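Hi everyone,

Forwarding the result from last night's run.
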Amino acid sequence: MKTSIYLFAGLFLLFSAAACEDDDDMTPVIDVPSTYSFIRDGASSVSFSGQSDRIAMAEETISAMKDFDKTAEDLSNMFTNANSPFTDADLNASSKSVRSKVAASSELFASNSVRAAEIKTDFDGWLNAQVSEVFPARDVLATAGSPGQIADGSSVRYINAWGLEYNQAFAKSLIGGLMYDQIANSYLSPLQLDSGTRRIDNTAGTIEPDKSYTAMEHRWDEAFGYLFGASANEATPLSDVGTADNFLNKYLGRVNTDVDFDDTALNIEVAFRRGRAAIVAADYVERDAQAEIIEDELSKVIRVRAVYYLMQGKIALEAGDMGGAFHDLSEGYGFVYSLRFINGTDGDNIADGYLETIRNAGGNGFWDIDPTALETIASEIATAGGFSLEAAAN
């Protein structure tokens, strides 16, 4: 009897081992390059020119918000790319625009066009208010309840009646509303990557007409482009991380200089390479695992900088440095606004609740906000991000 049992067990183990070997043989082999360089038939299969265009458009728009000769129509035209608004002729000739991709992700807004329109209107409002409220008061010293200029060390800041710099709110909110939303909630989402026949086509190696990439490969590259699209060398984007643009790339660099988070940039860059290589190998489990790493690390960038600026604002307020405080809080306001794009369906409630406190509408805005309220918000953001307040605040 024992002999029969042992014989059966041996045959079962032999069969199981053989099955495992067969499974291993079927596992895709992922060839991860040392740089973000992918070649098909002798040509690069990486393309994200549209993302580079939008970053450049956003850069010029932010600069124009400090040009007192600009009109509200000028700024709106830059946001929508209408009537050749840019100094770069190539941008004017582009079919892309910044506004069209704000709050436009597959996951959050495909079935919520009303909310998408409301968010776009927020951005429109900041552009209009910069011209209608701040520009006319540019030579006036700001006071509580009145817009104007305020000193921040050797710099001059231009604020609204309650202390907000509209250009900072606009720029930092774009980090969540354009860059992060498009990366995490659109291009790295299976809703985009696997849309239609993209998985079947990618597995078969079917490339787009007159292109060198599959549709899935291109979507992944477009996500890469919203972070590294202004880098001097796309293959080695960490060589100028933090200086390539003034949006998500810049603040990835800032976070990465903090010893508490100094593996963030490398984690993201490696995940982009490994995920792209997984797509080439048709390993969609690995692709999604790398997408999750990217999303987690980028959400950490937004949370860390929100905490940092709120705490810097608190410190400056307590020291009586109102100009420095208002500048930090304006940046913090934009990063807190960006939280709505991280937290899915709860994002709006979380961000709006914090913004209401920071706005201090029942008082005089930043002029008399309670510094302890800022620390409370910062602490909650840090807890939600899985890091300490102290780690992000320094």
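Residues 1-24 have pLDDT under 50 and may be disordered.

Cheers,
N.
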